[in-house]
Amino acid sequence: MRSTLAVATLASVLSVYATDIAVTVGANDALVFSPSSVTANVGDNVVFTFASKNHSATQSTFAAPCTKSGVDSGFQDVAALAAGAPSPTFNFTVNVTTPLWFYCAQTNPASHCAAGMVFAINANANKSFTAFQAAANATGSSSSGSSAKSSAGSGSNTASAPGSSTTAKGNAGERVRVGGALAFIGLVAAMLL
């Protein structure tokens, strides 16, 4: 009972300290995720906002950058929205600390992934964003891959209805932390032992 309560308390505390990280897909009509790479903690929410054209945020792997291997926002056709309609968003909750990789699966008129339209969460020295983007550029094409679900996070499409909006809590990469939070987490972890 004590460990169940401690785990529930720890989960509650971690959710309070999670942050939203804003990523724009297709910023300035370009084939880019902006920013192209972010650092996120477990529980953080990456909010992809689609700004132009018809893009996706599709999870892949470092080894196969243009092949679907997890969550997928589906194509978000911003060009087809009525004037004044809010931009569609896709939320991805991070639940691992290892690197996560994404790309745009659009292949019309050419592969956006092969053009370098890729994104990374928690890239590191061994698996860098630059190496991932170079591998994507080397593919020359894109594949829709499998429809496997990811165990590295969860995504949800929260395209806004006219008259409503979805707002990220912070700027890209911004962290919301309160002094003493780590000490409290350490105390709860000690209770688990």
Structural account:
- There is one protein chain.
- The protein has 193 residues and is of the alpha+beta class.
- The chain has two domains: 1-17 and 178-193, no CATH class; 19-176, Cupredoxins -  blue copper proteins (Immunoglobulin-like, Sandwich), CATH 2.60.40.420.
- It is 20% helix and 22% strand.
- Strand 1 and strand 2 form a beta hairpin.
- The radius of gyration is 18 Å and the shape is globular.
- The model is unreliable at 142-151 and 157-193 (pLDDT under 50).
Task: Reconstruct the topology from this structure.
Blueprint: H1 2-16, E1 20-25, E2 33-34, E3 37-38, E4 45-50, E5 54-55, E6 58-60, E7 76-77, E8 89-94, E9 100-103, E10 118-121, H2 129-139, E11 153-157, H3 181-192
Parallel strand pairs: 1-4, 3-10
Antiparallel strand pairs: 1-2, 4-8, 5-7, 6-9, 8-11, 9-10
Helix pairs in contact: 1-3
